[in-house]
Amino acid sequence: MKQPQPSGSLPASQDPEFPNIVKLAALERQVFDFLGYQWAPILANFLHIIIVILGLFGTIQYRPRYIVVYAIWTAVWVTWNIFIICFYLEVGGLSKDSELLTFNISRHQSWWSENGPGCVRKEASMSGIRGLDNHSYISVIGCALEYRYIEVMHSSFQILIALVGFVYACYVVSVFTEEEDSCKYLSTDPLAKVLVTFISLSDVCLSGLSCHQTSFHPCLCVLWH
């Protein structure tokens, strides 16, 4: 028997490119914060990755509540990145040279401060100074772009991705809600429940796919859940 085609579009299942971009952007940010021992951003990025995965799971598995959680988190993520921008631009008394992002447990700065485009890292021995025989002075010269502007661009890109993600999440939730509303009458129809019983939904379980990753009509998926 030919399976009916879905009447509604499921953007997340059919076009996974944007969720992949969000994940890659979050992982890229986490890698460079790890290299710079920026503990506060590391924790924020870790939580962000978890919420992104949760939102992606909700999109694939037809769980609008998880997508709503992601949409709410985007507001928090935008606020955090605005703070990072203010931190590196030293707005409102903030100082990029402070140890705020490392929880005052180290003096590490952004990885880009020594590895930015064009930067040349030089170590000068300080053996002539008593007590510093085994230490060296590190200077960075020739940077084509100051590291704080690189961090600002990173945060600005994250804000842009978050805003697009919020719109994307709202769209997916609206699609799922419209499908549920259009199928409400079926929830009290005994013939519809019999139809769900006799359709080979067992194949979905055996294949490991969610109902919405198949070609079943979305109304049947609503009833199935």
Automatic annotation (TrEMBL):
Keywords: Cell membrane, Membrane, Transmembrane, Transmembrane helix. The gene is NKAIN4. One of its GO terms (cellular component) is plasma membrane. This is Sodium/potassium-transporting ATPase subunit beta-1-interacting protein. The chain crosses the membrane at residues 39-60, 67-91, 157-177. The keyword Transmembrane applies. It comes from the Eukaryota. One of its GO terms (biological process) is regulation of sodium ion transport.
